[in-house]
Write a structure and sequence with these properties.
The chain is mostly beta strands. It is 0% helix and 50% strand. It has no helices and eleven strands. It is globular. The termini are far apart. The mean pLDDT is 95.
Length: 124
């Protein structure tokens, strides 16, 4: 079993930056492909935001965040990060960290472990 705990959410102004962290435990971290998702409203599906391979050498982003968000990981600290820059009101959401057995998981169905989420609010 894998446990994931997100942190770093909060209120930020339009155009600002925020860095999310997700600490993992329960399995060797380097055996997990990691990703971030977001849910913009209760009952709305989770949108894929970023993924990183087990060794951190490959990343994948949808067009909606490409160039603004950066996913990274520190396997020595069992932590994955999401650096978010140039934030927009439409980035407001609950952000979820997720873990997968896949090398570079690109689809929600590949993820078997999820954190509880952290709220990010972008406002003027």
């Amino acid at each position: 079993q894998v446990q994931l705990v997100e942190s770093g959410g909060g209120l930020v102004q339009i155009g600002g930056s925020l860095k999310l962290s997700c600490a993992a435990s329960g399995r060797p971290f380097s055996s997990l492909g990691m990703g971030w998702f977001r849910a913009q409203a209760p009952g709305k599906g989770r949108e894929f935001v970023a993924a990183i391979s087990r060794n951190g050498g490959s990343t994948y982003y949808p067009d909606s965040v490409k160039g603004r968000f950066t996913i990274s990981r520190d396997n020595a600290k069992n932590t994955v990060y999401l650096q978010m820059n140039s934030l927009k009101p439409e980035d407001t959401a609950v952000y979820y960290c997720a873990a997968s057995n896949a090398w570079l998981p690109r689809f929600g169905s590949e993820y078997g472990y999820w954190g509880q989420g952290t709220q990010v609010t972008v406002s003027s």
